[in-house]
């Protein structure tokens, strides 16, 4: 069976870009240097609770000079599952700030980590998260960008790491219409999804389609992993230089659940390695679509058979392990 190819859209491929020096001045220059088709930014220091007001001139320049799909990553400190009230209050304020900035710069979504129970167990952590996140969602203006929940690698007390966890997490939040998902390939791998082969990547995306639904996937963080599968360690690596390898990403571009969804790298930078990662992914995108057209449901594997089209197998080469 051959999937009708022309109907499946191409995912834009881009990078998380630095914005010190201005979200437009620096961010767009960096985006151009790495040939990003989509970008992600921080709107405040990701390791602090600071809430910068933004620079209206830079915001205006960004909107005037760029049509790239744009996403915000909220600070890492945010944890809506925390047992500590002060952290909870700051987390909600920090997320609301990022969402407000998202509205100002017309972001397509605000990525936030799904959090940790810290102590007293996942069930209690989920209960606290539910109460606090629903309160934030209820206060959102209708023109706010959606909240993109990013599952974690499964480290200590994580509330959400695997695809099945995502379904449970969304269920706790009553499948609120302002919620979407940002899947990070390094996190999924560390959480136990062995996506280091095309069938493994396909199995994870199939599961996502079944339990969460393709319409909830808004963004993918495409990162290779320095850490092993199921290690629960969050260690990003450049595409093809880690334990996932480059090849399975072709399946990501091909699969109906993720095809057309923007893909952002958060790998070690700066410009030269980011440009290489974006370029590698763009070639895998072509390959993924070529494979889906030429080989139908047989897909494309990390170790192409000798019968595989030579033109399709050559540009990427064997993934470095
Ligand atoms: Zn990520």
From TrEMBL:
EC number in record: 3.1.21.2
MF terms (GO), sorted A to Z: deoxyribonuclease IV (phage-T4-induced) activity; DNA binding; DNA-(apurinic or apyrimidinic site) endonuclease activity; phosphoric diester hydrolase activity; zinc ion binding
Cofactor dependency: Zn(2+)
Matches recorded under NCBIfam families: nfo
Positions of region (Disordered): 290-321
UniProt-annotated binding residues for Zn(2+) 1: 73, 113, 150
Species of provenance: Haloactinospora alba
Name of the featured protein: Probable endonuclease 4
GO biological process: base-excision repair
Alphabetical list of SUPFAM superfamilies matching this protein: Xylose isomerase-like
Compositional bias per record (Low complexity), positions renumbered to this chain: 297-313
UniProt key word Endoplasmic reticulum: no
Protein family according to the UniProt entry: Belongs to the AP endonuclease 2 family.
Cofactor binding, per record: Binds 3 Zn(2+) ions.
Upper taxonomic lineage: Bacteria, Bacillati, Actinomycetota, Actinomycetes, Streptosporangiales
UniProt domain Xylose isomerase-like TIM barrel: residue ranges: 29-283
Keywords, sorted A to Z: DNA damage, DNA repair, Endonuclease, Hydrolase, Metal-binding, Nuclease, Zinc
Pfam family, one: AP_endonuc_2
Catalytic activity as recorded in UniProt: Endonucleolytic cleavage to 5'-phosphooligonucleotide end-products
HAMAP family, alphabetized: Nfo
The organism's place on the tree of life at top rank: Bacteria
């Amino acid at each position: 069976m051959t999937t009708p190819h022309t109907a499946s859209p191409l995912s834009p491929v881009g990078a998380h870009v630095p914005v010190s020096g201005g979200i437009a001045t620096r961010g767009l220059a960096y985006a151009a240097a790495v040939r990003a088709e989509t970008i992600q930014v921080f709107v405040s220091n990701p390791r602090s609770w600071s809430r910068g007001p933004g620079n209206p001139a830079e915001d205006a320049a960004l909107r005037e000079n760029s049509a790239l799909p744009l996403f915000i990553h909220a600070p890492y400190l945010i944890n809506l599952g925390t047992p500590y009230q002060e952290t909870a209050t700051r987390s909600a304020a920090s997320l609301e700030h990022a969402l407000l900035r998202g509205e100002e710069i017309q972001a397509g979504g605000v990525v936030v980590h799904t959090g940790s129970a810290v102590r007293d167990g996942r069930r209690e952590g989920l209960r606290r998260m539910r109460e606090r996140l629903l309160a934030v969602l209820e206060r959102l203006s209708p023109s706010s960008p959606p909240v993109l929940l990013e599952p974690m690698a499964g480290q200590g007390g994580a509330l959400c790491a695997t695809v099945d966890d995502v379904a449970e997490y969304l269920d706790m939040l009553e499948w609120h219409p302002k919620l979407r998902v940002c899947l990070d390939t390094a996190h999924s791998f560390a959480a136990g999804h062995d996506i280091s082969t095309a069938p493994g990547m396909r199995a994870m995306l199939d599961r996502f389609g079944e339990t969460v639904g393709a319409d909830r996937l808004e963004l993918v963080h495409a990162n290779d992993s320095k850490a092993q599968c199921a290690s629960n360690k969050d260690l990003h690596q450049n595409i093809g230089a880690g334990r996932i390898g480059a090849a399975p990403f072709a399946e990501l571009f091909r699969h109906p659940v993720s095809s057309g969804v923007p893909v952002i790298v958060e790998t070690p930078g700066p410009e030269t390695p980011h440009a290489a990662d974006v370029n590698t992914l763009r070639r895998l995108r072509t390959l993924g679509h070529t494979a889906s057209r030429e080989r139908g449901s047989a897909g494309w594997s990390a170790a192409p058979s000798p019968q595989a089209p030579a033109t399709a197998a050559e540009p990427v080469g064997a993934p470095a392990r």
